[in-house]
Design brief:
single chain; 251 residues; alpha/beta; seven-stranded mixed sheet; 10 helices; 7 strands; 14% strand
C-alpha cells in the first residue's frame, strides 16, 4: 500500500478537489481508501449524502482506539472506500497528545489494511496542527497543492518546515525516503500574477514541482462545491490530474 497525503497549511488551494480527483482516477485500476483527517470534513460531505449517520463511526474513534479501523470504512464503489471525519476530531488532538505513541497512531491503524488497499489517500487540515503532523509521519508521498500567489509560496515554505520536523519521527517507521510533489492549482493562464508566481515556484523547487499545472475551471470547482460531483474525462483539468496521478504511481 502506498500512502499519499494531500496537504498544505494554506487553505483555498483546491485540496478537496485534488484529494477526490486523484482518488477517483486511481480507483479505476486500484483499490483506494480515502481517509478524511480534516475536522471540516469536506471530503466526507462530498462523498456521503448523509454525513450525520457517521457521528459514532469515523476516524476520530479509530484514532482514540475506540473503534476498529475496519468498522469505520464505508464503501463508495467497488474500488473506492472512505473513512469519514467529523468536526469534533478537532478536539481529539488534546486527548491524543497524552498518548506516548500518538504520532504513530494513524500510521499503525492504516498499516492494518496493507494487504487490502493499493493506495490510501489522506485529506488533511489546512494547518500545521497535530492531525497534519500525524499524516506527514504516515506518508510515502505528500502532494502539496499550491495556488500561484504570494501567500501560496509562503505556505510552501512553512509546510516544508513542518514536514522536515516530522521526518525526525517518520524515520522510525518508514525506511523509504519521503517524496514531496508540489502541484500548482487554480492556475489562470495569461494572468500576470499567476505566471510570475508559477515561475517563482518552479525556480524555488525545481526537483519536486509537478509537470502538472492544474488550471482554474468551473469543472474543478464543482468537485468541491457540489456533493458527489467528480471530474470526468474531457473536463478541463482532467488531463493535468492524470499527469499528477502518473507521477504518484511512478513515485
Amino acid at each position: 500500500m502506498k500512502i499519499v497525503v494531500v496537504g498544505n497549511i494554506k487553505g483555498g488551494v483546491a485540496k478537496t478537489a485534488t484529494v477526490n480527483t486523484i482518488a477517483t482516477i486511481l480507483s479505476k485500476k486500484n483499490k483506494v481508501l480515502l481517509v478524511d483527517m480534516d475536522p471540516q470534513g469536506s471530503t466526507t460531505e462530498h462523498n456521503l449524502e448523509d454525513p450525520s449517520r457517521i457521528i459514532d463511526n469515523n476516524i476520530k474513534h479509530v484514532l482514540l482506539k475506540k473503534l476498529p479501523i475496519s468498522s469505520a470504512i464505508i464503501e463508495l464503489s467497488d474500488n473506492l472506500k472512505i473513512i469519514p471525519s467529523e468536526i469534533s476530531l478537532e478536539l481529539t488532538q488534546f486527548e491524543l497528545i497524552s498518548h506516548s505513541d500518538h504520532m504513530y497512531t494513524l500510521y499503525d491503524m492504516i498499516s492494518m489494511l496493507d494487504s487490502e488497499i493499493d493506495y490510501c489517500i489522506i485529506d488533511t487540515p489546512g494547518s500545521g496542527n497535530l492531525l497534519s503532523k500525524m499524516t506527514f509521519v504516515a506518508a510515502d508521498i505528500i502532494v502539496m497543492p499550491v495556488k500561484p500567489e504570494f501567500w501560496g509560496i509562503k505556505g510552501i515554505d512553512i509546510t516544508m518546515t513542518v514536514i522536515e520536523e516530522c521526518e525526525n519521527v517518520r524515520k522510525y517507521v518508514k525506511k523509504e525516503s519521503l517524496k514531496v510533489i508540489i502541484v500548482p492549482t487554480l492556475y489562470m493562464k495569461k494572468r500576470q500574477v499567476d505566471e510570475t508566481m508559477l515561475e517563482a515556484i518552479q525556480e524555488a523547487y525545481p526537483d519536486i514541482c509537478s509537470k502538472a499545472i492544474i488550471p482554474f475551471s468551473e469543472d474543478i470547482k464543482k468537485v468541491y462545491t457540489e456533493p458527489k460531483e467528480q471530474l470526468q474525462e474531457g473536463d478541463k483539468g482532467y488531463d493535468e490530474y492524470k499527469q499528477l496521478v502518473k507521477e504518484i504511481i511512478n513515485g
